[in-house]
């Protein structure tokens, strides 16, 4: 999976699954950047073939509805949708 990496404060393993055309995904990414959090992200809609199948399986493991944005923290906490308070609570 070709994840993009954003430098920042290490708060554990933070992964954002997003769509390049999604306003809420963009707001979530901007919030993580504003908070200075280190994270990896992938725009699922820009993947193809086997990579897309693998990414979709990954997202569905955490979020069976396959909705975006999906933020996975330390392979245990999941935040679905733009939930600023929840993100701040888990990462600040």
UniProtKB/TrEMBL annotation:
Boundaries of every GST N-terminal domain copy: 12-92
A Pfam match: Glutaredoxin
SUPFAM superfamilies: Thioredoxin-like
The name this protein goes by in its record: NrdH-redoxin
Entry superkingdom: Archaea
């Amino acid at each position: 999976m070709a994840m993009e990496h954003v430098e920042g404060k290490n708060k554990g393993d933070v992964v954002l699954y997003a769509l390049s055309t999604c306003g809420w995904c963009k707001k979530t990414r901007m919030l993580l950047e504003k908070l200075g959090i280190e994270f990896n992200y992938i725009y699922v809609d820009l993947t193809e073939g086997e990579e897309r199948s693998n990414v979709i399986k990954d997202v569905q493991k955490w979020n069976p509805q396959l909705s975006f944005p999906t933020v996975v923290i330390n392979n245990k906490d999941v935040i679905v949708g733009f939930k600023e308070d929840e993100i701040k609570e888990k990462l600040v």
